[in-house]
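ok so i was messing around last nite and threw this chain in just to see what happens. nothing serious, just curious
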Amino acid sequence: MRAAFTLGDLVLAARYLMRFERAVRAEKCAELLFQLEQARDFAAVTGRAHALLGDGSLGALALRRGIAPMPASLTPKVMEALELVLGQLGKAQALHQSSARM
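result:
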């Protein structure tokens, strides 16, 4: 992951994941982050947003994929989705940092 993420990006990605059953959320999160990298690579090469994947913003990509409504309070489902996104973003950023040092 090359760019910083906003709190809004995190919430929108979690809302995207909330559309799915718990068993497939990790896979859907990984897919979303892979598509995010594709969008960022495309924008870096062409200087334009990808027609399907957007401008390389996590929030924009989640919105393009569709999001669940946000409950008024932090339910276990919301917290699990937020935790999943944070965990996978942390792993992706750590991998990027370690590969950048090589």
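not much to say yet. The mean pLDDT is 90.
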